[in-house]
UniProtKB/TrEMBL annotation:
Subunit architecture: Monomer.
Function: Oxidized purine nucleoside triphosphate hydrolase which is a prominent sanitizer of the oxidized nucleotide pool. Catalyzes the hydrolysis of 2-oxo-dATP (2-hydroxy-dATP) into 2-oxo-dAMP. Also has a significant hydrolase activity toward 2-oxo-ATP, 8-oxo-dGTP and 8-oxo-dATP. Through the hydrolysis of oxidized purine nucleoside triphosphates, prevents their incorporation into DNA and the subsequent transversions A:T to C:G and G:C to T:A. Also catalyzes the hydrolysis of methylated purine nucleoside triphosphate preventing their integration into DNA.
Major site of localization recorded for this protein: nucleus
Origin species: Biomphalaria pfeifferi (Bloodfluke planorb)
Name listed for the protein in its UniProt record: Oxidized purine nucleoside triphosphate hydrolase
Reaction catalysed by this enzyme: N(6)-methyl-ATP + H2O = N(6)-methyl-AMP + diphosphate + H(+); 8-oxo-dGTP + H2O = 8-oxo-dGMP + diphosphate + H(+); N(6)-methyl-dATP + H2O = N(6)-methyl-dAMP + diphosphate + H(+); 2-oxo-dATP + H2O = 2-oxo-dAMP + diphosphate + H(+)
UniProt entry tagged with the keyword Nucleus: yes
Pfam families according to UniProt: NUDIX
Keywords: Hydrolase, Magnesium, Metal-binding, Nucleus
Amino acid sequence: MSERLRKILTLVFVREPGKILLGLKKRGFGCGLWNGFGGKVEKNETILQGAKRELVEECGIQADVLERIGLINFEFENDPVIMEVHVFLTFHYIGDPVETEEMKPEWYKDGEIPFNQMWPDDKYWFPYMLQKRKFEAYFLFKGMDTILDYWIKESLNDCCSSVNKII
Ligand SMILES: Nc1[nH]c(=O)nc2c1ncn2[C@H]1C[C@H](O)[C@@H](COP(=O)(O)OP(=O)(O)OP(=O)(O)O)O1
């Protein structure tokens, strides 16, 4: 098997009953799109620690308890990197969302999520996340806009990455 490079990332969704906190990404990967909060896991931290750190850094919210809800692997055509995104949920948090250099936060009602200004994969797996159904998914992209192939299943294993190399 050829060596794949795995990039481990987090994505955190803060919830209130019937509402979800999204952030408009102001720079970097996914700039101009609404999404949860997250980023790359650093070498000296666990995935959970990385998720909590990014949530504070990107919108000033502290969450002591995060529920692991999904795992999504993204591949891009002709790119050896696999992006492994760990998705978390919380209803229990401290602080009010604040705008940062990276993200502009805003609450959305569950029925008014701006999918046309989000990654194209989100509309496939958000229903699982919103209903607290654990899921695993895979998406193969061509560029940033076209999904060539995907699958989603309702389950989530304990194990994390079968890492060849973490970048
Ligand atoms: N197709 C996709 N659908 C989605 O919903 N979220 C995605 C996605 N691809 C990436 N993400 C998420 C994962 C992660 O939370 C975020 C990208 O991470 P980062 O914010 O760290 O990226 P950056 O390149 O801006 O990193 P920094 O330069 O370190 O800030 O986008």
